Fold these 3 entries.
Entry 1:
Amino acid sequence: SSGSDDEATPAGSTITFDGDGYNMVGGLVVDYGPSAPIGTNETHYNYDFTIADADISLVGPGSSATLLVYIDLFSPGASGFQVGTFTFEDENVVTEDDISDSYFFFSGEVETDTDGVEGGDLDGPEYEVTGGSVTVTGTGPEGYIITYNLITTGGQLTGTYTGPWIFIDATGE
């Protein structure tokens, strides 16, 4: 193909879920701070990432979103969030030692809207993440790039989201 590759187009924010493509336009990062994912020792740092195919600040009643992806990530060390590749772990079987220096997540979900009502809410099926990985790169929170390769109860979800992001500090500090 000809043409310039340095045009500022958000072409990198396409997510494929169960064979259908979505252009993701809104992202939210919530900083929950130091975390004890198992036990009482604060061994990790917790960020939640949510993306949607509509303005993220409007998701819910009044939103035109048809797909929302939520993932709850834990990076090693309690001093701050670290970028890396996060792997799904079953919190019912891992021990504190198993995850001590790991990038991981226990939970995530994909919410859908299937009734086609503009301005409705995400009232379609919700699917749990059951496996896979998520890679976060870039300098955050505004510059994060997140790449999904997830297995869910509703099919595979893959793709990359490059922003924009809204950042919320929920650490209470």
Entry 2:
Amino acid sequence: MNPQPEPFAALRIALEAAGIRFAIGGSWASMTFGEPRFTNDVDVIADLSLPAVDRFIAALPTTFYADAADARTAVMTGRSFNVIHVPSLLKFDLFPARAFPLGMAELDRAIFVPGTGLSDDPVPFVTPEDILLAKLHWYRRGGEISSVQWRDISGIVNACAATLDRAYLERSAAKIGVTDLLARALEHADR
């Protein structure tokens, strides 16, 4: 009998079987490119359509819990849905890339990163620039009060300042209305 794949490996197999492009974002990405911290879920940005979601849910092993109706509704309304690996209670939040103004660009620019703790194989991640922009977006949408979001933002800037594509950041920040927050975040790196 073959051992069961690790939670992310099983999720990845189902995503790839459904033909869904994806990349890791959220806290896993900010930890990978910034400062480590605890998180109990994995955010996955994905190019989701109703037929692809149906194929994905059907391809998930029985070790996962997923509500197919909720997943379909989420895709139609542009919101996230989750699937849970029951044995480990690891939660994966899937975000429709087309619901975020930069979502498809995040997938187009994704890079494969080894040694992330999710898999022995390299995993597609949004770039440091794209996770920085996403964190700025969520910080703004959350009323600019989350110290956790700002810590993630600062961690990415501190760790990646020398290699960040500033022109891309400025163009993209203007598209999502966070130019002022980007300037504030980069201020520390420029000192």
Entry 3:
Amino acid sequence: DRADPGAGTVNLHVEVYPHTGGDPEPEGTVLVTGGGPGWSVTQAGDKYGVAFYLLADLARTRDLVFVDQRGVGL
């Protein structure tokens, strides 16, 4: 709550996976989150299953940051 910074904080679970290839692309990092309510991107199966499969090419040259939405996953 920006109007009341003393009201507290909310923890978000984030996992960072550095690129797997040579030099990273200059465009930067890819942020990954679940597409619907109630779905955790960090707890979605073996090594995040579909997300890593779909982003395999990007993962060679870009760091991936997986962010759980509030209230799901960790």
